[in-house]
Fold:
Amino acid sequence: MLERLDAVRAIFNNLDVIVWAVDSGGTIVVSEGGGLKPLGLPPGAIVGQNFYTLYGESSDGVNNMQRALAGETLVVQHSDHGHALESRFVPVRGADDAVVGVIGVTLDVSERLRGQAELREQAELLDLVHDAIIVRRLDGAITYWNRGAARIYGYSREEALGRDVHALLHTAGDVEEGRRRLLADGFWDGELTHTCSDGRQVIVATRWVLKRDPDGGPPAVLKIDTDITARKQAEEAEARRQQEIIRAQALAIAELSTPLIPITDEILVMPLIGMMDSMRAQQVMQSLLAGLASGRGKSVILDITGVPVVDTAVANALLRAAQAARLLGAEVILTGIRPEVAQTLVNIQADFSDLITRGNLQSGIAHALGRGGRKGL
Structure:
């Protein structure tokens, strides 16, 4: 029997626990375990001493012991010699069901409590971050939701925990691509649109990081969202402003490149300078017709002295402009045809038979004045 007791003591004394027993009168009958050493007590050192005398009549330990002797099983945390301890009190009943003593196990939980305190501190630090920090399982279920997430999305931690993150936030964006890259590379960066509790939509720059459990547990995903809605809106506004500037500049350039100058009330001159292409030809047509429609022009002089190349496309554009002007009752006079241009027009067989042509702007103006008189000059 003694050999068995010695074997049991040896087992307990090699474990970081304290196993103890107290009889109904408060006498300590068992005190074993390796957990006694950090408290400065060898195994069995306090056996035979009275629990109440050892810990004081008014201590919490005595109160807990009295509750256990009254038949209550309890687990309490306390401290001794600077160590945080957790003790379990279990009443022992005799044959008549009366409590004849208490047995217990005490564990040193200092490291566990320090770890919990560190986790709380880390959680508090994460709550100070303005970004949304979310931890979820691969199936999307949220397991952590910081204050930043609550601030951005409007859902409290209690409302978010356990919910599918994409269902909760009505995620819009390339989520499938994100999942594929996450599983392939262990992370993914992108932009998503989420819907808040009040219906507002926010654009976030998001980063997903896959955390695999080395013990074989289910992997988790860390999701960090930065609200970039204001930045994106500012960028879009700036892009729209730039487009407006470009359009305004294009209109200004078009007006400068196709000016329509009134010589008299009935004579308009459009000097053309530079290369002509389809867009420029369309601008000539629009400017010419707009000028004729808003005024009383009877003669329009198209001066091509400054056009270096006149090809089939340019010739056709000039002919179309002349035809459109005639539909509005105006005569079109083409001036500035240089010898090389005339040769080109002959080679491409351009038909200018319906146009009045003059060698230079001066002779064109003279013709228009001779046709309509000198009124308004």
User: Anything to note?
Assistant: Confidence is low (pLDDT under 50) at residues 373-377.
